[in-house]
Amino acid sequence: MPLNRENRQNRQNRVNRRKFLKESAAAGAGVAIAGAVAAPAAQAAESAAAKRPARRYSLTVMGTTDLHGHVFNWDYFKDAEYSDKAGNAQGLSRVSTLVNQVRAEKGRCNTLLLDAGDTIQGTPLTYYYAKVDPITAQGGPVHPMAQAMNAIGYDAAALGNHEFNYGIETLRKFEEQLRFPLLGANALDARTQKPAFPPYFVKKFRVPGLPSVKVAVLGLTNPGIAIWDRAYVQGRLVFPGLEEQAAKWVPRLKSMGADVVVVSAHSGSSGTSSYGDQLPYVENSAALVAQQVPDIDAVLVGHAHVEIPELRVTNAKTGRTVVLSEPLAFAERLSLFDVELVFERGRWGVESVSSKVLNSNSVADDPKITKLLSDEHAKVVAYVNQVVGTATETLTTVEARYKDAPIIDLITKVQEDVVKAALAGTSYASLPVIAQASPFSRTSEIPAGKVTIRDLSSLYVYDNTLVAKVLTGAQLKAYLEYSAEYFVQTAPDAVVDVERLTNANNRPDYNYDYVSGLSYEIDVVQAAGSRIRNVTYNGAALDDGQKFVFAVNNYRANGGGAFPHVASAQEVWSESTEIRTRIAEWVTAKGVLDPKDFASVDWRLTRGGVPVFQSV
Fold it and tell me: 5'-Nucleotidase C-terminal domain: which residues (predicted)?
């Protein structure tokens, strides 16, 4: 090599060496000179990479649950804007505004919107489009909930147990009208044992310069459907436990490359059941799923109608934290999960999850939704305001949970009359008919004067139907004892506070039953299980062996509330017409709603034989 070329090459080598040393020092590589051995290039590159800021992605998952037909902040039973003492607001039109705000802040491409079930039952709006102007009719309408949820842009929803209340045909039609999947990994075809609905939904989120983030949503519904809507699903669908099916599907989703696994579960978090031991599955098992099944990052909880901004559960197998959130029902809240991911070693990993709830009372209605469904809303308002009779006096449920109220006697009288007519001419016609009913609402009122469908609907807020079962006197005593557990044990000389007298062990009002046709006392001094006193029928002590036809709603008949004997009792008749409709028919036929035609004092609370309320 010529000298000048050699000099030039040496000078270039020195320049390159100084440049390398300067860059290495800036990177903290600490390369040694003066006879030391330089670090290999691979080691230097790895060290430099370790010092670079991690590559991250933020995902926001929004969730609603137990919408129960609430599109607007409107109380169809009061024919007025909805309001309560807490200042809550309801309806998807409010939630839509919240969703729009979150999408504007986070970027729509970085958000996911889910629901955890119980969508198409619960208000006169949903009843109207299931029964009065049904979506299943030839050329029928699009369900208002489908219209609203499509317009808002839901990505997926889990099946709720109330989705089955109107039968599978109505549910399938609703599913057909949606532009997103209804998920139910544990809703299986009874014959094939394969999912009857899509088990999961997967969505990819693009990240510039990096692989997409793949999010899988597993939908799980409630095994109690097999009990509560047995008439519709028996022999057609089965509902295994949530934990079992999550353990089956989550590993599959991970093997498919899911970076994030979210479960939308129509199941509460308490680990309890309302139907006793009739099924080997836990009704409210969302937290158990998080605890037992690895690789779940977040759970949208439904079914229980409670507000859980954030619940952290540790998975027993991995030690990782799973975040659960349940927004308040009726679209009063929107859950928000913020999921932070980091890209390391060639893949995305979840670094953290947090959750909170947004209150729909903080925003106005989305005019897009109100305009979209204004016609449907107007039709239902006109329907519920139809006058069907006249009441001679005001009837109310204000005291119905602790006093025998005539307004509840109206329900039992209608049920007795319907069952007696249905069994006329049969071998069961000679058996006495008695009935049960619950004080569903604490605020329902039928005012004196004109009676409308909405007045009667507010009395019976569920779409239950009527069933006739045969029970003995002994079984009815056990039934009454179980019902009486609703009351808090109260000392003989204690001041009675009606606000603390009921709902023992958090039992809801709808799981306390009146039983008409019998006369009995409930002694609240006694411990649960020994409270029923002086049970008589037609003025004589109840004979344990006497048989009765028991007119009962389908929820209770199928085991809802875990009342003894009724689920296994002989069934002699049932129908698909709602009890609410039967009440309206009864009042329409009578024309005049007069307590003398239905009211009776069948039961009273006592303490050692002394009435708790002297006016009873």
Answer: 387-566
Rounded to the nearest angstrom, the gap between the alpha carbon of residue 131 and the centroid of all alpha carbons in its chain is 22
Q: What is the mean pLDDT of residues 520-547?
A: 97
State the pLDDT at residue 277: 53
Which are the contacts of 335, defined by CB distance < 8 A and separation ≥ 6?
62, 63, 64, 300, 309, 325, 326, 327, 355, 356, 357
Strands 308-314 vs 321-326: parallel, antiparallel or unpaired: antiparallel
Among residues 136, 230, 133, the alpha carbon closest in space to that of 174 is found at 136
In this structure, what token pair is assigned to residue 391? 């009441």
Q: How far apart are CA 391 and CA 481, in angstroms?
A: 34
Are residues 65 and 327 in contact, defined by beta-carbon separation less than 8 angstroms? yes
Contact status, residue 485 vs residue 507, Cβ threshold 8 Å: yes
pLDDT score for 19? 43
* 32 vs 221: CA distance, rounded Å: 64
pLDDT for 230: 85
* In contact, 299 and 29? CB cutoff 8 Å: no
**Tokens describing residue 32:** 């040694």
Q: How confident is the model at residue 275 (pLDDT cuts 50, 70, 90)?
A: low
Query: What does DSSP assign to residue 544?
Result: T
Global confidence as pTM: 0.81
CA atoms within 13 A on the CB side of 48: 14
Rounded CA separation 447/111 (Å): 48
**Total residues found in the chain within this entry:** 616
Checking if the pLDDT of 25 tops 90, the result is no
Give per-residue pLDDT as tens, 303-312: 999 999 999 9
When pLDDT is cut at 50, 70 and 90, the band that residue 187 belongs to is very high
Q: In whole angstroms, how large is the CA radius of gyration of the chain? A: 31
Ranges of beta strands (E only) in 490-568 are 514-515, 519-523, 532-537, 540-541, 547-553
CATH of 388-611, one of 3.40.50.720, 3.60.10.10, 3.40.570.10, 3.90.780.10: 3.90.780.10
Using CA atoms, how far residue 209 sits from 187, 320, 339, in Å, is 40, 29, 20
CB 388 within 8 A of CB 457: no
Token pair listed for 532: 């029923």
CA–CA separation, 391 and 387 (whole Å)? 11
